[in-house]
Amino acid sequence: MAVINPTATEALHDLLSDGMTLAVGGFGLSGIPEDLIAAVRASGVRDLTVISNNMGVDGIGLGVLIEGGQVRKVIASYVGENKLFAQQYLDGVLEVEFNPQGTLAERLRAGGAGIPAFYTRTGVGTEVAAGKKTEVFDGVEYVLERGLVADLALVRAHRADTVGNLVYRYTARNFNPVVATAGRVTVAEVDEVVDEGAIHPDHVVTPSIYVQRVVRTSSRIKHIEQRTTRQRTETPA
């Protein structure tokens, strides 16, 4: 049964340490556990390895950990919209392990399922496969990828019940389910907590067995990563 915590700081108070590996859900700014990330920032832990699709943007989401100089290595799909992340990578300050997006998702899923490694065709013959073992199956070459397991997983869900079952909302689901299973300990930040049994079993995405702690988010701001507008055209009378 998950422990319901009043604040993100209390949810993480005995879970953070220098040099640990964090897996964090979200895609861009959608579905990011913003309160939990802020608590990591405030804790001052350093030398972190962060597994995430990307690192947010400057000043928002995982970008605050980059600004705080708390991250040593990132395992991600792309640099995205974070200019400081890109600059630190180019300057050699950050170690970055790039993964094809589907491969990253499968590495997290495999880690959560107890699968230490798997073969995939993605990346064969490119820099992605450099230094990795390859094998030929049925005349086709595959590259070996390792599953990912993190010391701590931080996710954002829409709803949790009091035992820790999670439901996500629309595109905020993204990487959160696979991240939730890949943590040795998983903490979920949610919009609302309901009584046990209030979530229909068919609607549960992440079962409570994967979730150790839950905190209700204090943030209601929905950040927009890119806003594109066009001039309104007048409709002829």
Largest sheet: 9 strands, mixed
Task: Give the DSSP E fraction (strand runs of 2 or more residues).
Answer: 25-35%
Shape: globular
* Amount of helix: 10-25%
Low-confidence stretches: none
| SS content category | alpha/beta
Radius of gyration: 19 Å
The total beta strand count reads 12
Distance between the termini: 63 Å
Could you give the topology of this structure?
Elements: E1 3-5, H1 8-12, E2 21-24, H2 34-43, E3 48-51, H3 63-67, E4 71-76, H4 83-90, E5 95-98, H5 101-112, E6 117-120, E7 134-137, E8 140-146, E9 150-161, E10 166-167, H6 176-182, E11 183-194, E12 213-216
Parallel strand pairs: 1-12, 2-3, 2-9, 3-4, 4-5, 9-11, 11-12
Antiparallel strand pairs: 6-8, 7-8, 9-10
How is this structure best described in words?
With 237 residues, this protein is α/β, with parallel strands linked by helices. The protein contains six helices and twelve strands. The strands form two sheets. Strands 1, 2, 3, 4, 5, 9, 10, 11 and 12 form a nine-stranded mixed β-sheet that branches. It has a three-stranded antiparallel β-sheet with strand order 6-8-7.
Descriptive labels:
28% strand, 237 residues, globular, nine-stranded mixed sheet
